[in-house]
Write a structure and sequence with these properties.
Number of strands: 8
Shape: globular
Oligomer: single chain
Strand content: 25-35%
Strand order of the largest sheet: 1-2-3-4-8-7-6-5
Number of helices: 2
Number of domains: 1
Distance between the termini: 29 Å
Structural class: alpha+beta
Helix content: 10-25%
Amino acid sequence: MAVPAPLTPASAQGCARLTALLPQRLESLPRRATTPTSPLVAAWGASAVVLRCGVARPPGFTAGSQTTVVNGLAWFQVVGTRSVTWTALGRSAYVELRIPQSEPADAFLVDLGSVIARALPAAR
């Protein structure tokens, strides 16, 4: 799991708030250790649902890109061969959530979206 690059002070503060609010369980998945260890990365479950805070703008995202809004938080989706990567948009830092294709994304987007919205202020 790659650790995000160095953050701006505002992004670092928001990511620290997010880390403090992340749940120990994500639906039925227990939180697990990550390698390398980083306060910017969290994971749940054996096949690893992975959250990374402070990532770069998602490749392929433009102002006209299609997004999915869940409880007021916009997400940009990129489908890969084994996983789907969702990136939360419009906050002080981008937050990436990589979900194995074997896992349904809906509940994770709801659960983590509310935490992201609380921790990271809207971008200006």
